[in-house]
Design goal:
The structure holds two protein chains of two kinds.
Chain A lengths: L1 H13 L3 H17 L10 H11 L8 E7 L5 H18 L2 E6 L5 H11 L11 E6 L5 H8 L3 H5 L23 E8 L4 H12 L2 E6 L4 H10 L5 E3 H16 L14 H6 E2 L6 E7 L5 E9 L6 H38 L1
Parallel strand pairs in A: 1-2, 1-4, 2-3, 4-5, 5-6
Antiparallel strand pairs in A: 7-8, 8-9
Helix pairs in contact in A: 1-12, 2-12, 3-10, 4-5, 4-10, 6-8, 10-12
Chain B lengths: L3 H19 L3 H38 L5 H21 L6 H32 L5 H16 L2 H6 L2 H37 L12
Helix pairs in contact in B: 1-2, 2-3, 3-4, 5-7
The chains are: A alpha/beta, B mainly alpha.
Chain lengths: 342, 207
């Protein structure tokens, strides 16, 4: 009797109404977003490589990076924190940064990212950063190729209509030899255009910030070295946020403008996201944790990806749980059927 | 003539670009610069064409009171209103255009994309079954990669992120590279067929 009851339960679970699954997933995602908790963020090599490349341009007048926004608002939760973190890195370490987009939907995103990142920084458009603005997609190829010869000829004006040539930021910046890193943010295969034309023809360094679903597609480029690094979905964004907090935004007497990247420091430091101010939890070899609280506020926009990672962690666990339960139910039902038949 | 002239343009320009890639002569470079200038002038016409096309499609739907014609009114209104707000007040922070972007487009787009999580969870529960050896390998790989993407994976075992990276770096990459090589060869073959005038379907209108 008891056996029959169990069987019915598993059977019923096999045909569970999907609305219950939706509710569980919604709760699993919403609660970690509303009530953040601290989880360690492990920085991977593809993320660290981008950080190190940008950091090598710190305080240099003859080097700059270009951020290409190739996405719309739908992929913002994953890509926007990456963009804000990289802009912050540039502002903290005095790296010249340019922005550009070939999708009309991305134009407001560029403004939004710059406005979010520059809060609290004394940076000026045309001096520390420059938005080239939106260019029609049909012009993508001539612009990518044209920038290999002369940026100011290929683009001529910035988003505000100013002649690029006259701006201070353009001093010592002519083509990909100077604007030596291009980071393309997208939820598609748009990075390939930069690899094929800017990398192959002019030797520009290319990096990608992509949504998690596109990661597998871009691994071959990472392995061949055609991509300097890759920010992989929300995880990549969370890793970059941590790198900026630990190194670029770090201030003390020895390092008034941020400290250089170090694998050793990274291993022993965690930045709790529940703290109001930027806090460093330093773990020594014996496992003792020393807490250093700074006077800098840890803004919500600067820890968004790490909060999102909590939700993603719980969602992944939920999906794994669903897969396991579904399979257990499948095998039990199948065994019961076989028993009945024979 | 309607088909011959476009065919001729494609063939001549196609071969000129192939020659430009391999011949670094001044004439070749000048031709390339000339093309760059012209291509900039062509693209605005595409925008005009797009707006006219959208207006015609939805205008016809509204005038004929076709099923769901009300959505066409919303589409045309949104097109005019969004464009007008950008032209009149600009795109700076605090303008109506930016308000529309932050409060209408951003949440709507994110909502559409986030639905994916619900479908994946539901599909994983309903269909992801270890029915065969191949399906079991896929299932185990999926669980390891998912765990490798979150801090919990590292907490369970430091091997999980390593195995996850190995799956992405070795079997995944081998398969991806094979697909990419196939696609690449296919693209070369199709391009050659277009340049030689064998493939003409892009001209439209059927043969």
């Amino acid at each position: 009797m008891e056996k029959k009851k169990k069987m019915t339960t598993w059977n019923r679970m096999q045909h569970l109404d999907r609305r219950y699954i939706y509710i569980v997933v919604a709760v699993a995602i919403i609660i970690p977003l509303l009530i953040p908790f601290n989880t360690p963020t492990y920085v991977t090599e593809p993320t660290a490589n981008i950080y190190k490349k940008i950091d090598s341009f710190a305080d240099r007048e003859d080097k700059a990076i270009l951020m290409s926004f190739n996405h719309d608002a739908s992929t913002m939760p994953e890509l926007f924190p990456m963009e804000v973190s990289i802009l912050r890195h540039c502002f903290e370490r005095n790296v010249k940064v340019f922005t550009l987009c070939f999708l009309p939907q991305a134009a407001p995103l560029v403004d939004y990212a710059i406005n979010t990142a520059k809060e609290g920084y004394d940076v000026t458009s045309g001096v520390d950063y420059l938005n080239f603005g939106y260019r029609p997609y049909a012009l993508q190829l001539p612009i990518i190729l044209g920038m290999g010869e002369d940026i100011s000829e290929a683009l001529e004006t910035d988003s505000e209509g100013r002649k690029i040539d006259n701006l201070k930021i353009m001093e010592n910046i002519r083509n990909y030899d100077d604007m030596n890193l291009v980071i393309d943010f997208s939820g598609s295969a748009s990075i390939q255009t930069w690899i094929i034309y800017a990398r192959a023809k002019f030797g520009a360094n290319i990096a990608a910030g992509i949504t998690a679903v596109m990661v597998a597609d871009n691994y071959p480029y990472l392995q061949t070295g055609q991509l300097v690094g890759m920010l992989r979905g929300l995880k990549g964004a969370a890793e970059y946020e941590k790198l900026v907090d630990v190194f670029a935004a770090y201030k003390d007497e020895e390092y008034p403008n941020g400290r250089p990247y170090s694998q050793e420091i990274l291993k022993e430091i965690n930045v709790p996201i529940t703290a109001k101010n930027v806090t460093y939890d330093i773990t020594d070899d014996e496992g003792n944790v020393e807490r250093v609280v700074t006077d800098r506020e840890l803004q919500y926009d600067f820890k968004k990806a790490r909060i999102g990672m909590n939700a993603q962690s719980v969602a992944h666990i939920m999906i794994i749980f669903f897969i396991l339960v579904g399979n257990i139910g499948y095998f039990i039902t199948r065994k019961n059927k076989q028993n009945k038949l024979g | 003539m309607k088909r011959q002239i476009p065919l001729l343009i494609v063939m001549i320009l196609g071969f000129l670009f192939v020659i430009h890639t391999f011949v670094p002569h001044k004439i070749s470079a000048d031709f390339y610069d000339w093309w760059q200038e012209w291509s900039k002038a062509i693209s605005p016409f595409a925008v005009v064409l797009g707006v006219i096309s959208l207006g015609m499609v939805h205008g016809t739907k509204i005038s004929r009171k076709a099923p769901n014609w009300q959505y066409s009114v919303v589409t045309l209104f949104a097109l005019v209103f969004t464009a007008a707000s950008g032209f009149i007040w600009g795109r700076q922070d605090g303008t109506p255009y930016m308000w529309l972007f932050e409060n209408v487009q951003m949440p709507m787009s994110a909502t559409m994309f986030s639905l994916l999580a619900f479908y994946i969870a539901s599909a994983a529960y309903k269909a992801f079954r270890a029915r065969s050896a191949e399906a079991t390998v896929l299932l185990i790989a999926a669980i390891i990669v998912m765990l490798g993407q979150v801090p919990l994976g590292m907490s369970i075992s430091r091997w999980i992120p390593d195995i996850s990276t190995w799956i992405l770096n070795v079997p995944n990459m081998a398969a991806k590279r094979a697909i990419m090589l196939g696609v690449g060869l296919g693209m070369v073959a199709t391009s050659l067929k277009i340049l030689l005038g064998i493939e003409r379907s892009y001209l439209g209108g059927g043969d």
